Amino acid sequence: MRKKQFEPLLISEFVEDTFHLPMHEQNYYELVYIRSGQGKHIINKFELDYERGDIFLVSPADKHYFNIHEKTHFLFILFTDSYFMQNRRHQKLYAWIMELMNDRGLRESKLHMTDHDRLIYSHLMEAVRLYCITAINQRSQWLFDQLVAIFGRYKEISEIQRLPQAHTLHIDSSISAYIHQHIFTPEYLQLKTIAQKFNLSPTYFGIYFKKNFGSSLREYINMYRIELIEHRLKSTAYTLKQIAEELGFVDESHLSHFYKRTKGYSPKAYRQQQTK
Questions:
Q1: CB 97 within 8 A of CB 152
Q2: Whole-prediction pTM value?
Q3: Residue 14: enclosing H or E segment and its boundaries?
Q4: Mean pLDDT of successive 10-residue segments in the chain (276 residues)?
Q5: Which end of the chain lies in a sparser environment, N or C, as judged by fewer CB atoms within 10 Å?
Q6: How far is the C-alpha of 133 from the C-alpha of 138, rounded, in Å?
Q7: Pairwise CA distance, residues 144 & 137, whole Å
Q8: What residue stretches are annotated with the HTH araC/xylS-type domain (predicted)?
């Protein structure tokens, strides 16, 4: 496929036994589709297994690499923030795409898809691949609509994946998405701030949240912080000090106290158990 630097949209594919780039950053946002093959996606010190049908998001803030175990066919959709924000109408309609791309929790984890989801994506991706195999029409409305559909389905799956298991689908999943997108910036997760974001009074929002999520806002946030801590503890590349700084704790002692109060054992004990 034709490849030009600094275009708003690039689509390329590679079939490789060894990934063609070292650990690297990039100028573009990326959606990576695994057309075939197996291996590991290493992103920001995390190792995520991949197989046929998997999808990964990557932003310019990330460092990533693919450790290929079985010859892999990659399809890369690379774009700048200007592609989906071409005019005022697009800015209002498609701001959620950039919110997805800037969500670290999504980029540093694997999207869990059903066989049905993978089948849908195989058709969407193949259509885009075939359409762009000789050239990319940057102004194609058809191509734009297909890419919006690809990201739209990703958004739906990720929102369902993040809801508590007891949740029903009529709940406004945008609240959950907001919390996950801002987990690394605690100032955005104050009850008053979130209530204002969703045009509700703080008192009503607290009642609404507990009724529909089965826990208080603070409990929900703390459980997600525990999930992120454990995700990082599984990687020996992260020190307790780094985890504490990243998640807004005063120091590693504060993190350890928070974790032990919730789980009943220390983060060091959890890490030792995972590395046995």
A1: no
A2: 0.74
A3: strand 9-16
A4: 65 96 91 97 93 96 95 96 78 85 90 94 96 88 95 89 52 79 89 88 87 88 92 88 90 93 92 81
A5: C
A6: 13
A7: 10
A8: 173-273
Residue 261 is predicted with a pLDDT of: 93
pLDDT of residue 1: 44
- Domain 9-162 fold is Jelly Rolls (2.60.120)
Q: How far is CA 88 from CA 9, 82, 101, in A?
A: 19, 11, 20
Q: Tokens 């509700």 label which residue? A: 200
Burial class of residue 154 in the structure, from the number of CB atoms within 10 Å of its CB (0-12 exposed, 13-18 middle, 19+ buried): buried
pLDDT at 129: 95
* Residue 192 CB burial class (10 angstroms; 0-12, 13-18, ≥19): exposed
Asked whether the beta carbons of 176 and 159 are under 8 A apart, the reply is yes
Cβ atoms < 10 Å from Cβ of 216? 13
Same fold, 9-162 and 173-274: no
What do you get for the CA distance between the two ends of the chain, in Å? Answer: 46
Q: Which residues contact 190 (CB under 8 A, 6 or more apart)?
A: none
For domain 173-274, the CATH superfamily is Homeodomain-like (1.10.10.60)
Residue 191, SS3 per DSSP: helix
CB 48 within 8 A of CB 40: yes
Domain boundaries, the chain: 9-162, 173-274
3-state helix, strand, coil split of the chain in percent (to 5) is 50, 20, 35
